[in-house]
Protein backbone atom coordinates (compact mmCIF):
# COMPACT_ATOMS: atom_id res chain seq x y z
CA UNK A 1 0.00 0.00 0.00
CA UNK A 2 1.55 3.28 -1.13
CA UNK A 3 1.68 6.41 1.01
CA UNK A 4 3.05 9.92 0.49
CA UNK A 5 5.63 11.80 2.55
CA UNK A 6 6.59 15.44 2.06
CA UNK A 7 9.80 16.58 3.74
CA UNK A 8 10.18 20.33 4.18
CA UNK A 9 13.45 21.61 2.78
CA UNK A 10 16.05 22.39 2.27
CA UNK A 11 18.07 19.18 2.72
CA UNK A 12 19.77 17.27 4.20
CA UNK A 13 16.79 14.96 4.31
CA UNK A 14 18.27 12.29 6.59
CA UNK A 15 17.95 9.03 4.70
CA UNK A 16 19.98 6.78 2.43
CA UNK A 17 18.91 4.83 -0.62
CA UNK A 18 19.93 1.49 -1.99
CA UNK A 19 19.03 -0.23 -5.23
CA UNK A 20 17.95 1.13 -8.58
CA UNK A 21 17.50 -0.16 -12.13
CA UNK A 22 21.28 -0.53 -12.51
CA UNK A 23 21.32 -2.91 -9.48
CA UNK A 24 18.19 -4.82 -10.58
CA UNK A 25 16.69 -3.92 -7.21
CA UNK A 26 13.86 -1.56 -6.27
CA UNK A 27 14.92 1.76 -4.76
CA UNK A 28 14.70 1.23 -1.02
CA UNK A 29 15.25 3.34 2.10
CA UNK A 30 18.35 1.71 3.60
CA UNK A 31 18.96 4.03 6.56
CA UNK A 32 17.22 6.85 8.41
CA UNK A 33 19.32 9.24 10.46
CA UNK A 34 17.94 9.63 14.00
CA UNK A 35 16.54 13.13 14.62
CA UNK A 36 16.44 13.97 10.89
CA UNK A 37 13.55 15.23 8.78
CA UNK A 38 13.06 11.68 7.50
CA UNK A 39 12.99 10.31 11.06
CA UNK A 40 10.24 12.77 11.98
CA UNK A 41 8.09 11.48 9.11
CA UNK A 42 6.33 8.12 8.82
CA UNK A 43 8.94 6.61 6.49
CA UNK A 44 10.77 3.49 7.64
CA UNK A 45 13.91 1.60 6.79
CA UNK A 46 13.11 -0.96 4.10
CA UNK A 47 10.29 1.02 2.48
CA UNK A 48 10.32 1.06 -1.34
CA UNK A 49 10.48 4.41 -3.16
CA UNK A 50 7.71 4.35 -5.78
CA UNK A 51 8.04 7.99 -6.95
CA UNK A 52 10.21 11.05 -6.30
CA UNK A 53 8.41 14.38 -6.79
CA UNK A 54 5.75 12.57 -8.79
CA UNK A 55 8.21 10.78 -11.12
CA UNK A 56 7.95 6.96 -11.09
CA UNK A 57 11.21 5.29 -10.03
CA UNK A 58 10.78 1.93 -11.83
CA UNK A 59 13.27 2.85 -14.56
CA UNK A 60 15.57 5.09 -12.45
CA UNK A 61 19.18 4.19 -11.81
CA UNK A 62 20.60 4.82 -8.35
CA UNK A 63 22.40 7.96 -9.55
CA UNK A 64 19.28 9.33 -11.28
CA UNK A 65 17.30 8.91 -8.06
CA UNK A 66 20.05 10.59 -6.03
CA UNK A 67 20.16 13.51 -8.46
CA UNK A 68 16.37 13.86 -8.41
CA UNK A 69 16.44 14.02 -4.60
CA UNK A 70 19.37 16.48 -4.56
CA UNK A 71 17.56 18.76 -7.02
CA UNK A 72 14.63 19.18 -4.59
CA UNK A 73 15.41 22.49 -2.93
CA UNK A 74 12.24 23.48 -1.10
CA UNK A 75 10.20 20.31 -0.49
CA UNK A 76 10.84 16.66 -1.26
CA UNK A 77 7.76 14.61 -2.07
CA UNK A 78 8.13 10.83 -1.94
CA UNK A 79 5.63 8.10 -2.67
CA UNK A 80 6.65 5.06 -0.64
CA UNK A 81 5.41 1.55 -0.16
CA UNK A 82 5.75 -0.27 3.15
CA UNK A 83 8.18 -3.14 3.06
CA UNK A 84 6.76 -6.61 3.44
CA UNK A 85 9.96 -7.70 5.16
CA UNK A 86 10.62 -6.99 8.85
CA UNK A 87 13.15 -4.27 9.66
CA UNK A 88 16.52 -5.85 10.52
CA UNK A 89 17.56 -5.70 14.15
CA UNK A 90 21.12 -4.63 14.92
CA UNK A 91 23.28 -7.54 16.03
CA UNK A 92 26.40 -5.48 16.68
CA UNK A 93 25.55 -4.85 20.33
CA UNK A 94 24.21 -7.47 22.74
CA UNK A 95 20.71 -6.96 24.02
CA UNK A 96 20.67 -5.54 27.52
CA UNK A 97 17.92 -7.86 28.70
CA UNK A 98 19.77 -11.03 27.71
CA UNK A 99 22.57 -12.56 29.78
CA UNK A 100 25.96 -13.04 28.17
CA UNK A 101 26.00 -16.32 26.33
CA UNK A 102 28.37 -19.04 27.55
CA UNK A 103 29.60 -21.43 24.91
CA UNK A 104 29.25 -24.99 26.29
CA UNK A 105 32.96 -25.86 26.00
CA UNK A 106 34.00 -22.64 27.74
CA UNK A 107 33.74 -21.91 31.42
CA UNK A 108 32.39 -18.60 32.65
CA UNK A 109 35.07 -16.18 33.85
CA UNK A 110 36.10 -16.52 37.48
CA UNK A 111 35.57 -13.53 39.70
CA UNK A 112 38.54 -12.83 41.97
CA UNK A 113 37.99 -10.62 44.98
From TrEMBL:
InterPro entries in UniProt: PDZ, PDZ-LIM_domain, PDZ_sf
GO biological process terms held by the UniProt record: actin cytoskeleton organization; heart development; muscle structure development
Gene Ontology molecular function: actin binding; muscle alpha-actinin binding
Keywords: Cytoplasm, LIM domain, Metal-binding, Zinc
Domain (PDZ) ranges: 1-84
Highest taxon listed in the record's lineage: Eukaryota
Region spans: Disordered: 83-113
Predominant location category: cytoplasm
GO CC term (a single one): Z disc
Cell compartments where the protein resides: Cytoplasm
Key word Membrane present: no
Stored CDD domains: PDZ_PDLIM-like
Pfam families noted in UniProt: PDZ (PF00595)
Keyword Cytoplasm: yes
Protein name: LIM domain binding 3
Species of origin: Nothoprocta perdicaria
